[in-house]
Amino acid sequence: MARPAIVLLSGGLDSTTVLAIAKDQGYTPYALSFRYGQRHSVELEAAKRVVEAQGAARHVIADIDLRVFGGSALTSDIEVPKHDSLDRTEGGGVPITYVPARNTIFLSFALAYAETVNASDIFTGVTAVDYSGYPDCRPEYIDAYAKMANLATRAGVEGTQQLKIHSPLMEMSKADIVREGLRLGVDYSITSSCYDPDEQGRACGRCETCLLRLKGFAEAGSTDPVRYQDA
């Protein structure tokens, strides 16, 4: 019988690829998405499409409201920075699109979900290559969280669960991720990565996550199939 695994699924390029990887490795995925007050909530519709296309034992959308804290362009009225190229993106610091403690919060929900379905594995799409520089996407953070997680649950303390956090994209470039997803048959046309899409769900093409995505497809020798506002 396939092993259950929690897969954090935003509906974007990275997490959609991770869902395909988890299935390819023989896991039965339990997808977990979040409605956290993000301005780009269109990604949740993408997550639903991804689950419908790829399949999952269950798809949970958890409701939390990080707008009560703000502090990010994704959860407040701060404008999402736009650029003509990646060369012009913010350098050296953590960008304003960083949502305070987001991955810690998401992983905590995944930890609770894992314990209820007897899963010892959590998959996340964090990467430390071709990314925005978020502090909660680094390998040392993931390692530290896994150590803490095994001290934080009844299953961990009683020895019935030894949790492992899988981050298969950690050392992959966006081009590598695209190539792997295409190899696994991922339909990227149903995904959504943009931080500031329009009312029709079309990507802006100028926020950092759009530029990173476009770079990945270009370097992989492929064309991004999602709709862009300037297309």
TrEMBL record:
Entry's EC annotation: 6.3.4.20
Cofactor note: Binds 1 zinc ion per subunit.
InterPro entries cross-referenced by the UniProt entry: QueC, Rossmann-like_a/b/a_fold
Necessary cofactors: Zn(2+)
Keyword list, A-Z: ATP-binding, Ligase, Metal-binding, Nucleotide-binding, Queuosine biosynthesis, Zinc
This protein's pathway: Purine metabolism; 7-cyano-7-deazaguanine biosynthesis
Catalytic reactions of this protein: 7-carboxy-7-carbaguanine + NH4(+) + 2 ATP = 7-cyano-7-carbaguanine + 2 AMP + 2 diphosphate + 2 H(+)
Sample GO molecular function, one term: zinc ion binding
Keyword Membrane: no
Ligase found in the keyword field: yes
Any GO BP: tRNA queuosine(34) biosynthetic process
Transmembrane segments: none
Domain of life the protein comes from: Bacteria
Binding-site residues, ATP: L9, S10, G11, G12, L13, D14, S15, T16, T17, V18, L19
Binding site for Zn(2+): C194, C204, C207, C210
Protein family (similarity comment): Belongs to the QueC family.
Function: Catalyzes the ATP-dependent conversion of 7-carboxy-7-deazaguanine (CDG) to 7-cyano-7-deazaguanine (preQ(0)).
Protein name: 7-cyano-7-deazaguanine synthase
Organism: Streptomyces qinglanensis
Protein encoded by which gene: queC
